[in-house]
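Feature request disguised as a bug report, sorry. It would help if multi-protein outputs had a clear separator. Right now it looks like this:
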Amino acid sequence: MSGLLLLAGCVSKTESDVVVYSALDQEFATPILDAFERTTDHDTGVISKFDVESTKTVGLVNVLIAEQQSPVCDLFWNNEIMHTVRLQKRGLLEPHDWNVDAGYPRDMIASDGTWCGFAARARVLMVNTQVLTDPAMYPSTVADLADPKWAGNCAMARPLFGTTATHFAVLRELVGHDATIDQLRAIAGNAKILSGNKQVALAVSSGTVAWGLTDTDDAIIEKDQGFPVAIVYPDQEPDQLGTLRIPNTIAIMKNAPHPIAAGKLADYLMTAETEDRLAMGDSSQLPISRGSKFPPRVLPESPVRWMRAPFEQAADDWDAWSKEVLAIFE
């Protein structure tokens, strides 16, 4: 049984307390939530609930859906976005006036104001520099996963959950359903398909494959540990889509028991200072706000072209899409 389910009934009776369900790892979220408590002159306490299972985001979302008639959670801190959008489409989130700077990327804010994205991971190509010794040899696009010259020597996580599932759902909206299905079929026959992004990063750092598609938080850990790896931000040419960012998301639950306290915490989390704290951490998360003062070490020196991701449209027909992808990768 997960940590969340063990604690699900233990909620505060203090009207000013706020109950947070967090899919971000406890080691990263707790110091920030503790800092919030210290800044509110003890007006607002935080009751934090984490799920420790490997499928924690799915577990948390299922609990939120189960509790919709009698909500326990005030604020959902998700470490990705697609399941947040699915809650949005179920009508389980409350609109909020997000205090973000001018020019904040529109794909990082819900069209109805029910969630806001911040502190992202990027979808990158991780290369073993002892296998590919010349940077001119490096892959440069996600599409290279289907290139026969890399047959059996590149890797990707199974795109049935997590950021890889989100990535290809976004591509479906940008390049079309049939083209994305064709690409997935080609990748399935060409790349090594592993259980997750962490496993892809480990396969690259060990030299089992020359390169793979993973997330920046998994890639930077291998680089920080001294393995011979390089991080490539893909699809940077003018005619390409750019690199996809997968943000953390904050959302206030509809009919939250403590909506005022939830709003205070949402405003506290959606700041450049919070993003800087996450950027300085082990996972080197990528600030979205222009007010950020700490460039994470995972970023390259040259500016990155970011993909404009239609996350809300990518969540449409999720169940039917997942069945199609499962048929390719089962």
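(second protein starts here, but nothing in the output says so)
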Amino acid sequence: MKYLEVRHLRLSQVKAVDIPALFNQNNIPYNSIDVINWHAFPYCPKVEFAIAHTGDTILLHYRVEEDGVRAVAGEDLGNVWEDSCCEFFASPDADGSYYNLESNCIGTILLCNGKGREERMQAPLSALKKIDRWASLGRKVIGLDEKAHQWELSLVIPVSAFFRHKISNLSGLIIHGNFYKCGDKTAHPHFLSWNPIDIPSPDFHRPDFFGEIKFL
């Protein structure tokens, strides 16, 4: 199981568009999402993420290089996993439930909570609206573009986004989670993870393969 420490940046307000420069100024390290768990899907775009927090928000930045992009889902709670998509799954306590926060390359978000793949509760729109997003490709639907792209995505995720838990301060919190890159209907379907998933068929909804994440 991989282990990740999340630094505390003592800032009152951060906008998603400012995260890349902020992380550069503060030397926030990047981590690769490069584990090919299922060799039937060997394509491996270059993907890395960096994460920090401000106490009451999670700051997340993805950097991706891939051979073509897909962005069809333009409304939150849509099928973003079919697009060029980065995902953060997180289980904040021992109750057995976890959140799947999935975002395509234009910042469209799917956020749900539950104890398994078939038991998901969608986030209320009020919670989704509080997640600030910046996408280097813009926020408009692209469709399928088979040209090579380098793209970035930044998210500012308030603790209130964990809508079935009451988290007031992230400092000192230890959670379990995983980070993914997928694209079910892209020109090159792929299913990459940060922490390995040792099962025969593609499935990201496996909290038994989450890594440990400590918020400093």
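Even a blank line would do. Unrelated, but nice: Residues 3-199+209-215 form a domain with the Immunoglobulin-like fold (CATH 2.60.40.1190).
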